[in-house]
Design a protein that fits this description.
Largest sheet: 6 strands, mixed
CATH topology of the largest domain: Rossmann fold
Strand order of the largest sheet: 6-7-8-3-9-10
CATH superfamily of the largest domain: P-loop containing nucleotide triphosphate hydrolases
Distance between the termini: 64 Å
Structural class: alpha/beta
CATH class of the largest domain: Alpha Beta
Bound molecules: adenosine-5'-triphosphate
Number of strands: 10
CATH architecture of the largest domain: 3-Layer(aba) Sandwich
């Protein structure tokens, strides 16, 4: 009888992102900054990677490399099996300040990627009144914004704006979602609510996510894995899986296993900061 290969060999996940000795140096001789020393990093499809570390350690540089906004000074960055510059990528992005356009309604703001990104833009004129509009309304309902499609950004609270921002980042079904401190400007309770929303979206759609955050609790709540970075030169100094079961709750963040992880990573960051300032 032929043995079932799937039972013998563990499933090998595909890499969504691979940094292969990828490094970034800014500036000319005499005033060079090594923002990221040659780094190897593999992120599998569907992983939720949280990048944490002190200011200036290269977290945003990794996001910029993956999005193609910055070219590596050395090494290679492979996303979806191809070198970043070789192909237009379908990526969703969200930043600390929701960048919604003030003159458009929430529905039109969220619909923007469908108007701009291939292959959706091809069908935009034909579908926007029907299929795309339904899609936007369903996405808004997913994040608790049903009934706000015709509001303008100035009519929404900071938390609601960030919900709409997440909707816009995901509306075109990106396989890769890049988040640069999207919850950093929110109060603690709104932030925790948004973690729940983000977790629900990730469980439902399973994009690969890279989240840059200064908040270790946020990293532990959302991440499947946390990479800690250190500065001068920017590098990854700790890479830990986060295996708490899902869906995770705020109560879980008070459990001893969670606080132990938090404490260990905190100590790594503190000693890395001391190395830099010593
Ligand atoms: N365009 C640039 N020109 C020169 N130096 C830069 C440039 N962009 C970033 N750097 C430097 O590279 C290093 C890493 O920057 P990066 O923005 O990636 O850090 P970060 O970890 O995201 O910081 P923060 O948490 O403060 O946002 C820093 O020392 C920064 O000053």
């Amino acid at each position: 009888m032929t043995p079932d290969l799937a039972q013998i060999q563990p499933e090998r996940k595909r890499a969504a992102v691979e940094l292969s000795r990828a490094g970034v140096t800014f500036g000319q001789a005499g005033a060079r900054v090594q923002a990221l020393q040659p780094t190897d990093l593999r992120i599998d499809e569907g992983e939720f990677l949280a990048l944490v570390g002190p200011s200036g350690c290269g977290k945003s540089t990794i996001l910029k490399l993956v999005s193609g906004l910055t070219r590596p000074s050395e090494g290679a960055v492979i996303v979806g099996g191809r070198e970043v510059a070789a192909k237009a990528l379908r990526i969703g992005m969200a930043f600390q300040n929701p960048t919604l356009l003030p003159w458009l309604t929430i529905e039109k703001n969220v619909m923007l990627p469908l108007k701009i990104v291939r292959p959706f833009r091809h069908d935009f004129a034909r579908k926007k009144r029907g299929e795309y509009r339904d899609r936007v309304h369903a996405a808004l309902a997913d994040v608790g914004l049903q009934g706000f499609a015709n509001h303008y950004p100035w009519q929404l609270s900071g938390g609601m704006l960030q919900r709409a921002n997440l909707c816009r980042a995901l509306i075109h079904d990106p396989s890769l979602l890049l988040l640069d401190e999207p919850f950093g400007a929110l109060d603690q309770f709104t932030r925790e609510e948004l973690w729940g929303t983000m977790q629900d979206l990730w469980i439902k759609r399973r994009p690969t996510v890279i989240l840059v955050t200064h908040d270790l609790k946020e990293a532990g709540f959302l991440g499947t894995r946390i990479c800690v970075m250190s500065a001068r030169p920017g590098r990854i100094i700790d890479d830990s899986p986060v295996t708490f079961p899902r869906p995770r709750s705020i109560e879980m963040t008070f459990q001893p296993e969670f606080t132990a992880l938090n404490q260990r990573l905190r100590e790594r960051i503190i000693s890395a900061r001391q190395e830099v300032t010593a």
